[in-house]
Design brief:
Alpha-Beta Plaits, about 30% helix, about 20% strand
């Protein structure tokens, strides 16, 4: 045999012998040791005793009638030039409460229906802001929304459509704006 073939066979036999001896050492798992951590989980607490409690509900007082004003009416001293002091009896103060029993309408999901009045749509946001500023200065509840490329100006919302229709007429007279009444949504 040729010397180079002999060297190759000798090298191959050394590699095979080393693999046979060393390979099982790597596969025994002795080189890897798993760390075992102590368990620090506390013992489960005892279950509490279950107590049956009956709810105690009390009826709320009826608030449909106005409560009487307590105490005496206030006395006010009025000072007027060249007139001696006078004591003026002030009438009993009662809160201003709407006497209309208009309940809001509910939709099929029992959600109150609110209405809003759209006054204008602008391509330019500065025009929408200017109109909103005028309406706010006049004392109206105003908001704007961006829809696609338009800025829309709304007045409201209100639970009663009739009030918005009256407001629509008022704004027509004051500002010359003819609005459209829509159902109010938060989107």
């Amino acid at each position: 045999m040729d010397d180079s073939v002999k060297r190759r066979l000798l090298g191959l036999s050394v590699i095979v012998l080393a693999a046979v001896i060393l390979f099982p050492l790597f596969l025994t798992g002795e080189g890897y040791r798993e760390r075992h951590l102590e368990s620090r989980i506390p013992v489960a607490p005892d279950m509490p005793e279950i107590v049956d409690m009956k709810p105690q509900t009390q009826l709320l007082p009826d608030t449909s009638k106005l409560a009487p004003v307590q105490g005496s009416p206030e006395k006010v001293v009025v000072l007027v030039e060249d007139v001696p002091e006078k004591e003026v009896q002030v009438k009993e103060k009662r809160p201003v409460v709407s006497t209309s029993n208009d309940k809001p309408q509910l939709d099929e999901q029992n959600v109150p229906v609110a209405w809003t009045l759209q006054l204008a749509s602008f391509k330019d946001e500065s025009n929408a802001r200017a109109l909103r500023k005028q309406l706010v200065e006049a004392g109206h509840k105003v908001y704007t929304r961006k829809n696609a490329n338009l800025f829309k100006v709304y007045v409201g919302p209100d639970m009663q459509r009739e009030r918005l229709e009256k407001l629509k007429e008022l704004l027509q007279n004051d500002f010359g704006l003819d609005g459209i009444i829509f159902r109010f949504t938060t989107q």
